[in-house]
Amino acid sequence: MNQSILDLVGNTPLVKSNRILQKDGVELYFKLEGQNPGGSVKDRAAYNMIKSALDRGEISKETKLIEATSGNTGIALAMIAGIFGLNIELIMPENSTVERVQTMRAYGAKVILTSAEDGIEGSRDYAEEKMRTGDYFMLNQFGNDDNWKAHLKTTGPEIWRDTKHKITHFVSSMGTTGTIMGTSTYLKEKNQDIQIVGVQPTDDSRIPGIRKWPKAYLPSIFDPGKVDRILEVSEKEAVDMSRRLAEEEGIFAGMSSGGAAAAALRLCNELESGLVVSIVCDRGDRYLSSDLFE
């Protein structure tokens, strides 16, 4: 019996691809992060960032938290801040799906929408400016070591355990890069030969949750030495694979998960043998107001 919803963060299922990949000697597994209570992989980082800041005495119930987000981190922060009785203000682009905004507000967060044209960079600038001029504390997922350490402590060990130490390749979309940084750190400690593959969008593609950051906005937690290879995927590839995941595997997920799965399938088709794990970072129901599944 769980004592808190927080006990359900992590230990997400690993499910084998049975239709999208059918190739002797190569196995593809999807790690279903949408099974976290807040519906995404970001529950892990949000919990670790808030809990660690509380433990260090950096924040209290009197603190006003502020954070820029493109969606999933905001939902996770709203949920976990609410559980700890903390006030949080979330800044996001106005073209974010209505499901995201409503979910954050349902968890008790204040949501401020910034220009869609300025994207997440504009939201980050707004949050930084507000923090400088007011009494706010920013968790700063892009530069907070507690982000990637969440995956060092949980995601990496779970994958190592659940693949019975047989994983050969790990594939993850890159946004804040916390997932790939922490998981890479753990898996490389266990076996240096495990290949870490990051996924970015092609230059002409917009894929929510996957970014190719301008240099000025590159997350400071990102260490290129922890990624062996970067694969680029197009918006069409990400959309098509999101739809295939739902139709062929029964995995209902968002576009960044489709992008990672598309890259993972491309990788699997190169291999003669191996066990590949791809992160499915959230659930598809928070994209129903978009055209992703039309």
Automatic annotation (TrEMBL):
GO molecular function: cysteine synthase activity
EC number: 2.5.1.47
Sites of N6-(pyridoxal phosphate)lysine modification: 42
Residues noted as binding pyridoxal 5'-phosphate in the record, renumbered to the chain: 72, 175-179, 256
Pfam families, A to Z: PALP
Domain Tryptophan synthase beta chain-like PALP positions: 6-282
Annotated CDD domains: CBS_like
Reactions listed under catalytic activity: O-acetyl-L-serine + hydrogen sulfide = L-cysteine + acetate
Keyword Transferase: yes
Cofactor section: pyridoxal 5'-phosphate
Biological process (GO), any one: cysteine biosynthetic process from serine
Pathway recorded for this protein: Amino-acid biosynthesis; L-cysteine biosynthesis; L-cysteine from L-serine: step 2/2
Keywords of the record: Amino-acid biosynthesis, Cysteine biosynthesis, Pyridoxal phosphate, Transferase
Top enzyme class: transferase
Family: Belongs to the cysteine synthase/cystathionine beta-synthase family.
Name assigned to this protein: Cysteine synthase
Organism of this sequence: Christiangramia oceanisediminis
Lineage: Bacteria, Pseudomonadati, Bacteroidota, Flavobacteriia, Flavobacteriales
